[in-house]
Amino acid sequence: MDGTIWFFENIGTPDSAAWHFVTEKYNDIEFDYLEYSNVTFADIDADGDLDMFFGGWMQDNSKGIHFYQNDGNQYNPVWNFITDKYQNIETHFGFRNYCKTTFADLDNDGDLDLMYGNSLWVGYYKNIGDTINPVFQLVSYDYFGFGYAQGEFHRPVMLDIDNDNDYDCFIGTGLTTYRFLYLQNIGTPDSAIWNLETQNYHGITDSDLVPEFCDIDNDNDYDMFVGMHDGKVYYYQNITIANEPVWQFKTYNPVTLDVGVYSFSSFCDIDGDGLPEMFIVDNEERHGITTQSINYYENNGLPGQPFWELDTTSYFNIRYPSISAPAFGDIDNDGDYDMFLGQFENSIVYHENSGDSLNPQFDSTGIILFTIPTNETWCFHPTLVDIDSDSDLDMFIGANIITTALEPTFHFYRNDGTTELPVWTYAFSNWLAGGKVAFLDVDVDGDYDMFCGGPGDNVFGDIFFFRNNGDSSSFNFVLETEHYDSIRVGHNMSVFFYDLTNDGNQDLIIGEQDGGINFFRNGGMVGIRRANNTYKTINSFKLYQNFPNPFNNITKITFYIPQKSNVEIIILNTIGQKVKVLEQSQLWEGYYKVTWNGTDDENNNVASGLYYCVLKSENIHQSIKLLLIK
């Protein structure tokens, strides 16, 4: 919401984007009077590089469109701030000073004209100058003629979406009226005639819609990105090149793991591949209706080099009015992870894993284990740990917010059962700890110490550290500091420890109310604002060992290509005969993953036994052994 620009560099390929977070304050740009900032790029002076226009919700009514001229080039921009009111274009109308610009040659005269949205309408300025020295002349404050009847805070974008050689217009609106307008240009490239096709494009409705379009997958058509009020960016791929786009929802927040609000996260190797998968609760409220589900991110990386990709936004269709981050533990001692969730109604819900350690299976509806004895009505977060060294898992439960200073937000249930059959005994509660608690033997004295977000709302985002002055069988937590290691993130946090870097040390992961996930590497607690979900770069071809191995159904094979190359991945039998071609194409630099299901090129099942997977590329020849057992 502040007047800054976040920059993510695309380190992938034209066909497959891979986003790397660089900075939260691009070019050190920051305006303390500006909120809900937005950026538009256009080569306004026809020098072959893009210039930058900056707008948003301005508390200073004397400001307008901010203009940064690019004095560098298309590869190395050098931004020169020119003015905070470009060509004295007035943007303050109605009750707010707001602007969002877009540029297009609307009159087909070879130069860029300017359109901008403000709090009341969409204005149009014709360029009566030329491509190098633009001069903008007002045509209409209310270009489309519908004023604010279609919503407020207009965010227009121009493009030829129907491939008829003229510009069409999309407008997102917000505040009190939520619309996603599509205005088709049924005129000519020289003279636009606008027809309002729909107020609810593609069925997308939310407050503060911000649409943008680009060909992100290099298939010669526009794909669509839509920003929402809750902080998410939704990515819709265009799966046709016809005049009528066909939109397929792919994911939201393709450049970050930010879920918008309340990023309650946890990690677990749920599929037994030796890599931690990530689970993030998607807490979302739209128009008074609250829905919560679990986003499941599969880890398609390598040990110490996680690469999370969103697999589903509704893990096993588990949905509750409000839920916590899942807590995982083998509570029935059957070799796989079971799941526990906290609910808004003060209850803890148990979902048994009816699958196995490689193929989990959960029912969409769980069993309520118990209701926490409190008058508080906020979401409670369970954490499983063997706190008393009796070989079974106990449960600590924290809450984010309290309604009165007398209501406890920290509860402990001791497991008085066995490793196969738990018996939960309510032991005590107090108000000192809030949010999701996490445990780590930080002082290496043989017992668990405790970390959490502190009591109540903890608006400052500090971490409370409780040292265990007891021992491994009888804990005694004493608050040592409310500002552990000077770490400060967003409030309403969830704390989690996991060795993501595979170096034998537990790293710290913190979710927060604003939707961010903060990663602190263990080793001086080096803070990284957003978890980097890209691989480390290596300089040579690499064929990694398949997993699982041995296998009886399907196995995954990962390989790395250091530069654009013709690559072949094949399966051979023990006498060198080709069994199946898994990959045969030209690939860009990056990591890739293929699967083999134990069949040949004709999809016939092959016999059990030893096989070889071979990577070939020019003078490169690498192989691994695979053992198929049926």
Largest sheet: 9 strands, antiparallel
Count of DSSP strands: 47
Which structural category do the helix and sheet elements fall into? mainly beta
How far from one another are the termini?
A: 56 Å
Would you mind describing this structure in some detail?
It is a single chain. The protein has 630 residues and is an all-beta fold. 0% of the residues lie in helices and 43% in strands. The strands form eleven sheets. Strands 3, 4, 5, 6, 7, 8, 9, 10 and 11 form a nine-stranded antiparallel sheet that branches. It is globular, with a radius of gyration of 28 Å.
Topology:
Layout: E1 7-10, E2 19-23, E3 34-42, E4 51-58, E5 66-70, E6 79-83, E7 92-93, E8 96-104, E9 113-117, E10 122-127, E11 136-140, E12 152-159, E13 168-174, E14 180-185, E15 194-198, E16 210-214, E17 223-227, E18 233-238, E19 247-252, E20 265-268, E21 277-286, E22 289-299, E23 308-312, E24 319-320, E25 327-329, E26 338-342, E27 347-351, E28 367-371, E29 380-385, E30 394-399, E31 410-415, E32 424-430, E33 438-440, E34 449-452, E35 464-468, E36 477-481, E37 494-498, E38 507-511, E39 517-521, E40 526-528, E41 542-543, E42 555-561, E43 565-572, E44 578-587, E45 590-596, E46 609-617, E47 620-628
Antiparallel strand pairs: 1-2, 3-4, 4-5, 4-8, 5-6, 7-8, 8-9, 9-10, 10-11, 12-13, 13-14, 14-15, 16-17, 17-18, 18-19, 20-21, 21-22, 22-23, 22-24, 25-26, 26-27, 27-28, 29-30, 30-31, 31-32, 33-34, 34-35, 35-36, 37-38, 38-39, 39-40, 41-42, 42-45, 43-44, 43-46, 46-47
